[in-house]
Amino acid sequence: MTALVALLTTTAARAAAGAGDAVLDALMAEHWEFSLQEDPVLATRVGLDSGNDRLPRVTPADDARRAARERAFRARLADIDRDGLSESGRVNADVFGWILDDSIGAYELDLARIPFNTFSGFFMNALTASNGVRMETEDDYADYLSRLRDIPRYFDENLANMRRGNDTGFVLPRIVIDGVLPTLRAQIKDDPTDSSFYQPFESMSERVPSTRQAALREEAKSVIEDDVMPAFARVADYLDGGYDASASLGAEALPQGEAYYAFQIRRYTTLTGATAAEIHQIGLDEVRRIRADMQTIIDELEFDGDFAAFGEFLRTDPQFYADSPEQLLKEASWVAKRIDYVMPGFFGRLARQSYGIVPVPDEIAPNYTTGAYYGAPPGGDHGGAFWINTYALDQRPLYELPALTLHEAVPGHHHQNALALEMQDVPEFRKDLYFSAFGEGWALYSEKLGVEMGIYRTPYEHFGRLSYEMWRACRLVIDTGLHSQGWTRQRAMDFMASNTSLSQGNIRAEVDRYISWPGQALAYKLGELEIWRLRGEAEALLGDRFDLRAFHDAVLENGALPLAMLDAAIERYIDAAAGD
Q1: Contact 478, 502 (CB under 8 A)
Q2: Residue 354 — φ and ψ, nearest 5°?
Q3: Torsion angles phi and psi, residue 362, rounded to 5
């Protein structure tokens, strides 16, 4: 009788614990639908074609309306009793609440006044207008043309926001403006068929009749010439002549600067209590530790010279550089396949989605980073893309390719993102979710995991990994130095040059990225340190029961999480593993 009572009690408790899930699920579904309606670029990215004919609306009235809705969603979430949620429901609620708080905070700071940085922003949304758009029917091409016609409206709304920033002193530094102007000017072509916007019309779907293909091509040329290129010219002209760019580089020098930088730190690290001063010191400590490891390799190679001389040797010796873009891409592909071969030894779950090695588009390559990852469009005709920058080959050392590939492809960004898309029984927004501290922390963890995977074959490749790790440690020092301690651009570049073997071109691009994107650079090292801390805790508590493959699967099985929620997830994994 006692066992029966216990069973009935447990069953009732479980039922009560999940009673609120339906209410939460309905609220999250309503918010997801709202998000898709407000952001047609997001809708395209997740495989819906309902917004392929337009771009987002970003007027102050639109932002005020969205902010009010986000606050209403937050209030309704607060009314849901957590005790009535299942374990997975509580995870969903916590992630949903974090997203709402972040969105509300951005509206309160009116971040629309700075709508781009050197890496992303409104004009990049336009440049990737065809990404994820299925071009199969005449209607598909018509939608794409409508989206191109919407670029002038979209750009003008962003220009109005920037003018508001101009009037209030909330502006980007001049170095950022100078960096993006070449990209903007490059979109203005003598022949519209030379534009990347015309590319979808070069080889059209056979489902479109040939007579209509000719008409659509002519329409595309007119839209690009009459609408798209003038819009880019207006933005470039304003930035070149009418924009009062900041003479200061630091976020904290702007109006509400301390609140702005604190918000950026929380947004990208997902840490609520970390201060700029504390992060700066963590960075200095990591720089010292990694520098000692780098010096050990220099000593083992019996190099005749100091650290600076070794760095110059790596930057200038032809043996470390590809002779052609094709060679660089082939070397990256070879590294990627060597990693693929050993992945099953380190992960219980492998992603079904494939990935490929793709050169960075020529028109953005001069001001673009060394490599990046872009996920596959849902239902699209290709897999994930590991972008390799083949511009300025003398700035792309081969000994850095193993670390770069581990980071951007597998087991880094591609593996993590592709597994997130395969999650079952989670709200749709979580499959497309990205937290920099989690995603970039995992990717940097993956670089070091490559040592255990046997990917680094030479001392130079090991030094390249350490240089990449040093690069991310320097980010903690430089980002906080620039945005809270009054560092100059030259001081930041000198600090990175004296501690890494990165080329001068990469150093300039990276420092300018930190200047334009406060806080984002902090995510990598802080996220990586947290994952290693959690792994060490799991190893210590589980002892012989620790399974590295199971640990990695536990880190990734919930998709992207704020770091505190990842901590809780690993605690649950440890408890379950200890009880087996």
Answers
A1: no
A2: -85, 175
A3: -55, -35
Along the chain (580 residues), what's the average pLDDT of each consecutive run of 10 residues?
42 56 96 96 90 96 98 98 94 97 98 92 90 90 97 98 97 93 94 96 94 96 98 97 92 96 97 92 98 97 94 92 97 98 98 95 82 83 93 93 98 96 91 93 98 98 95 97 97 92 80 94 97 98 97 97 96 92
Query: Cβ contacts of residue 161 below 8 Å, gap of 6+?
Result: 58, 60, 112, 113, 115
In eight-state DSSP terms, residue 410 is: T
Whole-angstrom distance between the N-terminal and C-terminal Cα of the chain? 28
pLDDT at 438: 98
Report how far residue 232's alpha carbon sits from residue 242's, in angstroms, rounded to the nearest whole number: 15
* Total residues belonging to the chain: 580
Q: Are 352 and 107 in contact (CB under 8 A)?
A: no
Tokens of 294: 């780098």
CA-based nearest residue to 258, from 483, 520, 6 = 483
Q: CA of 423: how far to CAs of 100, 208, 382, 577, in Å?
A: 22, 36, 20, 21
Three-class secondary structure assignment of 22-69 = HHHHHHHHHHHHHHHHHCHHHHHHCCCCCCCCCCCCCCHHHHHHHHHH
- 325, 393 Cβ separation under 8 angstroms: yes
Q: Decide: helix, strand or coil at residue 191.
A: coil
> Sheet harboring 371-374: ordered strands across?
355-359, 384-388, 371-374
Give pLDDT, residue 500.
84
And the tokens for 463? 């030094």
CA 232-235-236 angle, to 5 degrees, is 85
- Give the integer Cα–Cα distance in Å for 95 and 103: 12
pTM, to two decimals:
0.89
* Continuous segment of H or E residues that includes residue 373: strand 371-374
Closest CA to 527 of 410, 434, 419: 434
The answer to whether the peptide bond before residue 182 is cis (omega within 30 degrees of 0) is no
Instruction: Return the SS3 of 246.
Output: strand
Q: Please write down the HEC assignment for all residues of 82-130.
A: HHHCCHHHHHHHHHHHHHHHHHHHHHHCCHHHCCECCCCEHHHHHHCCC
The whole-angstrom separation of Cα 540 and Cα 78 is 37
**Contact status, residue 396 vs residue 360, Cβ threshold 8 Å:** no
DSSP, collapsed to helix, strand or coil, labels residue 454 as: coil
Q: Which residues contact 477 (CB under 8 A, 6 or more apart)?
A: 280, 283, 284, 287, 495
C-alpha to C-alpha distance for 462 and 455, rounded to whole angstroms: 9
